Amino acid sequence: MKVSFFEEFPNKKSAEKLKLINYPTKVYLAAPSIKEFNEKKKLFSSKYVKQIIYWPIVKESYWLSPFTDRKVLLRVMNECENMQFMWDAEIPKKRRLVVTNLCSFFKNKKLIYDYFKQHEKTIYTAEYFPEKGIAEKFLEFLGLMFKPTKFNNKVIKMVYSSMHDFGEHFIKKEVKKGVEMYGDKFMVGLGTIAKGVKGDEPLLSLKLLKRDLEICKNNNVNEVVIFRLNGLNEKYNNVIKKFI
What we know:
Blueprint: E1 2-7, H1 12-15, E2 25-31, H2 34-40, E3 49-56, H3 70-79, E4 85-88, H4 97-100, H5 105-118, E5 123-128, H6 133-141, H7 148-151, E6 154-159, H8 168-182, E7 186-191, H9 206-218, E8 223-227, H10 234-241
Parallel strand pairs: 1-2, 1-8, 2-3, 4-5, 5-6, 6-7, 7-8
Helix pairs in contact: 8-9, 9-10
């Protein structure tokens, strides 16, 4: 199983964590523009880092959705036109955008869907977990869920057990279903081992990290992505290496 990492705040300190890694990995690197991404990714050069994926974050809404300003969506789409990248599909950090951009919601949703269908390179989508019943339909309606069978994307379901533990049985069931439906295009995000933009994210215990990695490994998940690289230490890494 491949183990990759998100890095939301790329800098020299977080890049130093790569010294702990002696197995092939990928890094999903957040940046507000492709120019800054290209500058930051130089810090993460390593013989073990096989790929660095652009993760656009925008000052206007932070994450991307039909509630994001249309001009911002177009800007991101244009700069990512000929490359693989990660689309972080979440409700805007500035919640007021849900109201102020409500009138353009359906036009923006169509714009996003059309872009996904036409994009020739792989788009990774970071999405809320789980995908079940009414919740699944609601997330799909909001333009926050992209089925690989429809959009040919690779989906990363954010199973952040430190923030909300769905329970072993439920996670197993959902992960198994995801792999059955989408194969290698179904990926799992695990965490959190460091704080993110909210600043109050609780840290994942070693016990839950082991459990979640075990669930993914036993259900043939091809790749997991851990949030985030800066939180990696010897203890976490020793658990991770058992599942490579």
